[in-house]
Amino acid sequence: MTRGPILSARNIVKVYPNGVVANDGVSIDIYPGEVLGLLGENGAGKTTLVKILAGELEPTRGEVLIDGRPAGLKSPLDALKAGIVLVPQHPRLFEGLTVAEDVGLTLKLAGRKVAKADVRGILRRLSEDYGLEVDPDARVSGLSMGERQRVEILRALSLDARVLLLDEPTTHLTPMESRSLVELSRKLAREGRAVVFITHKLREALEASDRIAVMRHGRLVGVLPASEASEDKLIRLMFGDRPLPARAESVGSARPQTGFQEAGGPVLAVEDLWVRGRHGGWAVRGASLEVRPGEVVGVAGVAGNGQRELFEAIVGVSRPARGRVLIASVDVTKSPPITRIRLGMAVIPEDRLGWALVPGASIAFNVALGHIFTNGRVLVDWSQLERLAIEAIRLLKVKARAPRDPVDSLSGGNMQRLVVARELLRRPRLVVAMNPTAGLDVRAATEVRAALKSIALRGAGVLVFSEDLDELTEISDRIMVMSRGRLHGPYLKPYNLEAIASAMTG
Amino acid sequence: MPRGIPTTGLVASLAVIVFLFTAAHFTPAGAIGVAREIARALTSTAGLEAAVKYMGPIAASAAGLALAYRAGFITIGAEGQVLLGSAVALWLLAYAWTNAPAIVGVPAALALASLAGAVWGAIPGLLRVYGGVNEVLSSLMLNYVALSIINYLVAGPWRAGPFTATRPLPDEYAVGPVAVAIAVVGLAGLFEFIHRRTRLGVAAEAYGAAPKAAVTYTMPRGRLIMALALLSGAAAGFGGGLMMLSFQRTLQAMSQPPGYGYMGVLVAWLAGRRAAVAVPAALFFSVLVVAGYSMEALGVPFNFVLLVQAMAVLAAALLGISGGARRG
């Protein structure tokens, strides 16, 4: 590259108000004429980085340079005017407008004066030049997700973008469409534009990119030319290469191996479960799994492959269309969550405030939530529940002042400690958890994982859905992989990371 | 009093009242005269007694609604439930069991009124749970169905004498203001207890603040809605029974519902959805009702009275009678 970078990030740090460090000192240069693949697991900080580059988020520290000069981006409009356009993962168009109106509006916002008729002409020309077929007069609300994405890209092109930031652009595309998008990216680069192509699919990154940057836990862990990259190398960068089997082994040997596995049936059995997705179609396609007493079963997968729907059907907040869920051999497929909780299920949902906890209510109220419907009493004894809350606070060292304080006053990590403590205080025989350590700092995450392991050691079955493969390899006895609604596996120890990762990204 | 009194709002409502009086050609002296008459009416024994009696149906409805609203079950059906409660109380004591001793007859009438309210309240609950029908619409429309039922009964089977009116309630079943006050304070206490000390109350609170948490960790939504529909209906029906026994005493054909249940809706919100606060808030409304009657008696036009009442309610809302609206 002889020319200097168009767009640069310098030591970008982004800390969200809830304390999550999404970017931790990221520096990278983006050059004209290249496709830069940005690879990483969910939650690695890719989206945060491109949002900062596009002026949608302000970095906590660090700066963005455009053509080597501090950009001082205050809003996405500043970035648009500098020719930097973000194509978000989930298209953001005006439902009520036509394609031409939507694009016209953006042009107007970016300060271009274009007549309505001209917008149509521009769209037609761009559609032809780049093979992006869209009817300018179609209403956005009637378009498929793939078509909307095309409109987003056309919009960027109509602004004559110098840098296109494509955030997981193939999420809503069919394999065919994905391939043509990869080709389009290459074409845009040949024209001298810069394209940042975010993905967690290895093959896509290898096909589309000139260089590949890999992020993990908010950091840039490597940038390498695509010609020097291999799937193997990338996986190691994405997931880290620690001596995993050894650690998992040591956990395994500490467990009383005999007795539990054979005694009684599984605490959870899911049989051929089919769950409809929110937007039609099947989110879960014939999932089957078993969790036996004393074991931790991990479900790995990239977010959006049906894990949430499977979790909801197991917990009981949604009804599957087909199949059965059994807890301790009792068919609970049609039972509400509270029946399952009374059978010994503990639930640790992904969303802390609003699902695991009631915002605005006190800590004691939130601890009570997990107990008053299982202790068989109609009347509520608050003094007893306050003692229980104190017990929960002590169990996992929740940093809280008093049980009567609002639960919102806790930090994210302490909220999660409180949820786990509350659920474990019921002495469950089955724990169902979704991303239990998402957004937690290392220490809180370690403690939550330790709590889950210890409950399994005491004979409970634990089912953990997680996007963090490191976490699953550390605590699970078996790993299943969820991809496009289907469960693959089980994968047994010692784990073949490559096989798991390729099942995840395949 | 909560911190930060909204001075602008208060001054504005006062200014509107002054403007209204001026526009209606009241001299300041005249306005003060009216105010003095109202004050006299309110501080008189008769005025106070009337205010406490009117408070009955308002406070009873509001106490039940407060809990339902906490859970996000927004029924507006108290008006019809009050009407039907008052009708069955009258039916029992004036038609069906005319020789009942008061000591048995009065509680029986109130129990039957509660039951009628609960039955009427159950309908929007069932429609919501099994049909997904928005309870705001169904309960509101059921108020007018209740009104039609009453008008039919008054004009048809229950008609007594030349006018479209029923028999009057025999005097021995009259309930005085002290009994009304005790009854509504007891009812509000009961609902406050349900809210704070039972798992139904915890579930209601949880559903209102975080439905997904409530679905997961408390009772099923349908069961909660039905419980709240029945309880709030029973409370309003009880208020209707009180209304019949304390001041209504007969039923006449009505073109519009009398409005005590609707006031209960307002009071429940004004009281910050707290049953205990609903009693003083209802008293505030019934005082406005009595003040309205005295203004009308002084020749102030009816619509004008309504406007002044509305201003007073706005001022109260701004001052935050609902101080304790926070969740505990």
Supply the CATH class of the largest domain in chain A.
Answer: Alpha Beta
Q: Measure the end-to-end span of chain A.
A: 33 Å
Q: Could you estimate the helical fraction of the residues of chain B in percent?
A: over 70%
How much of the sequence lies in strands of chain B comes to under 5%
Strand/helix succession of chain B: HHHHHHHHHHHHH
Kindly, what is the distance between the CA atoms of the first and last residues of chain B, rounded to a whole number of angstroms? 18 Å
Largest sheet descriptor of chain B: none
If you had to describe this structure to a student in words, what would you say it looks like?
- The complex is a heterodimer of chains A (506) and B (328).
- Chain A contains 17 helices and 20 strands.
- In chain A, the strands form 4 sheets. In chain A, strands 6-7-8-3-9-10 form a 6-stranded mixed β-sheet, sandwiched between helices.
- Chain A has helices at residues 46-53, 76-81, 99-109, 116-130, 145-158, 175-190, 202-208, 231-239, 244-253, 307-315, 337-342, 363-369, 382-395, 412-425, 442-457, 469-475, 497-505; strands at 7-15, 21-30, 35-40, 61-66, 69-70, 84-87, 163-166, 194-199, 211-216, 219-225, 268-276, 282-291, 296-300, 322-327, 330-331, 345-348, 430-434, 461-466, 478-483, 486-492.
- In chain A, helix 12 (363-369) crosses helix 13 and helix 13 packs across helix 14 (412-425).
- Chain A folds into 3 domains: 7-239, Rossmann fold (3-Layer(aba) Sandwich), CATH 3.40.50; 244-344 and 429-505, Rossmann fold (3-Layer(aba) Sandwich); 356-427, no CATH class.
- Chain B has 13 helices and no strands.
